[in-house]
Write a structure and sequence with these properties.
By secondary structure, this protein is mainly alpha-helical. It has nine helices and four strands. The strands form two sheets. It has a two-stranded parallel sheet with strand order 1-4. α5 packs parallel to α8 (204-220). The longest helix has 30 residues, at 235-264.
Amino acid sequence: MPFVIDINPVLIQLGSVAIRWYSLALIGAVAVAYLIARKGTRRVGISDAILADGAIWVGLAALVGGRVLFEIQNDLPMLAVDPFHAVMVWDGGLSFLGGLIAALIALAIYARRHGIPVGIVADAAAPAAAIGQAIGHLGCIVTGDSSGIPTTLPWAFIYRNPSAMAPHNIALQPTQAYEALALLGLFAILWVGRKRLASLGAGASAGVYLVAVALIRFTLFFLRDEAPVFAGLKTAQLLAVPLGAVGLVVLFVLATRRASTFRLA
């Protein structure tokens, strides 16, 4: 029996101000991600003040990057008519990979400005990003954003609320749930294995995160209701390839260094 979702994306309407489920999910995602990141940064001696300041810049970069790529993928005609639509995050959404790429750039710049090895900061951020993104996808489930293609699977999602972003009254692949569960599993791997990964060198957790996220996105987008743009692949899949390649290069370099150290010993 498919899961019927008939929830208004707007939780509370206070005059012209709408409090949305998606916004609450983002707030919860940021709060949990910050707490997880703080555990990681404290373990390596990074002060809470540096973390808090960096979290603001990285968070803003993720928001801007996520919105920019979303608009490029979905709403370029709308921007020509109403440029203000670019900042209307509540009307549409954010691109996962756009936000991730922008956040990685901001994190690298901020770490270098404070003289902190990028790998150490990235390792603290990796599990935080995974759990934050998993929680954020719960908002997508309610709103119908990032919906999948039609399916006959018994665990499909059917959206009934007229305000939902997904097609109404059609059984769809629950890609939002798939991604949330995959990211939750990735968080568990990174968190439980953080000490073992740390023994490989700074950047190991970040490398695993990048490879896993790239695989998750590349695979799931075959089930997403979006048009291909090149060689049968969608924009997110094309971006996932270099992202995963970066993660593989990081892990390869660390493995090579570790092997060299053992030979010298």
